[in-house]
Amino acid sequence: MKKTFKIILNTIPRPILIRLSYVARPVLALLLKGNTFTDPIDGKSFKSFLPYGYGKQRNNVLSPSTLSLERHRLLWLYLQNDTNFFSKKLKVLHFAPEQCFLKRFRKLKNLNYTTTDLLSPIADVKADICNLPFEDNSYDMILCNHVLEHIPDDTKAMQELFRVLKPGGYGVFQIPQDLSREKTFEDNSITDRKERARIFGQYDHVRIYGRDYFDKLRRIGFKVDEVDYTTQLSEEDITKYCLAKGEIIPVVYK
């Protein structure tokens, strides 16, 4: 199964994968049903999670039912336990909406919820993150997770995110980050898909962020809280939910 997943992930375009996943999820959830690991997003439990990764795969990380990864489950727990996301009336903008969240967030009556992406077939508004069709100071909350590493001009993207966020609003801007690396590395001359996957972790990434990511957000004008939410969870829960210890959730404020 691991080899099959690797072939699928590296050969089928993402928009097609999104459509195929709606058919595959119920089958996978039934085959892997058990009591060892739990997806906190839907509460379902399994004997194991699936492997996932472009290039080098990580074992036991992809939930069979919601298709959530470690970062999604961690973010869900953070939003549920430490924010007003599920209770306060908020105007929310969600970039590249993840399947594990999309239907659940749309059902929340407290949210005025809009999704956007340049390519995703499940987004409401087709838009370039560097040139957004939204007015200044429009949104109370922005979710922009694992998007900026795909954008050649991430400075312009960050400026647009700052522009459309309301004063007093907040956002979560997760990215793949090497916390042992002081400075972000990017090289636009690397165009080969395999070489990009080897260096940046995925064939369609253009950089690997270091700790200076937080400083760049601050230079744009954001206030940044580097939330290590795994420190607030028990070892039992980290194992049960298959989370990555030490993963930082970048929470920004305007």
Q: In terms of per-residue confidence, which ranges show pLDDT below 50 for 5 or more consecutive residues?
A: none
Calculate the terminal CA-CA distance, rounded to whole Å: 45 Å
| Number of distinct beta strands | 13
Over the alpha carbons, how many angstroms does the gyration radius reach?
Answer: 18 Å
Shape: globular
Write down the overall mean pLDDT.
89
Percent helix: 25-40%
Percent of residues in beta strands: 15-25%
**SSE order, as H and E?**
HHEEEEHEHEEEHEEHEHEHE
Number of helical segments?
8
Estimated structural class: alpha/beta
The major β-sheet equals: 7 strands, mixed
User: How are the strands of the biggest sheet laid out side by side?
Assistant: 7-6-5-8-9-13-12
Provide an overview of this structure.
The model has no long low-confidence stretch (mean pLDDT 89). By secondary structure, this protein is of the alpha/beta class. The protein contains 8 helices and 13 strands. The protein has helices spanning 2-11, 14-31, 70-82, 99-106, 154-164, 193-200, 212-220, 235-240; strands at residues 33-38, 45-46, 50-52, 58-62, 90-95, 111-117, 125-126, 139-143, 165-172, 185-186, 207-208, 223-227, 249-253. A 7-stranded mixed β-sheet has the order 7-6-5-8-9-13-12. Strands 1-2 form a two-stranded antiparallel sheet.
Would you spell out the secondary-structure blueprint of this structure?
Elements: H1 2-11, H2 14-31, E1 33-38, E2 45-46, E3 50-52, E4 58-62, H3 70-82, E5 90-95, H4 99-106, E6 111-117, E7 125-126, E8 139-143, H5 154-164, E9 165-172, E10 185-186, H6 193-200, E11 207-208, H7 212-220, E12 223-227, H8 235-240, E13 249-253
Parallel strand pairs: 5-6, 5-8, 6-7, 8-9
Antiparallel strand pairs: 1-2, 3-4, 9-13, 10-11, 12-13
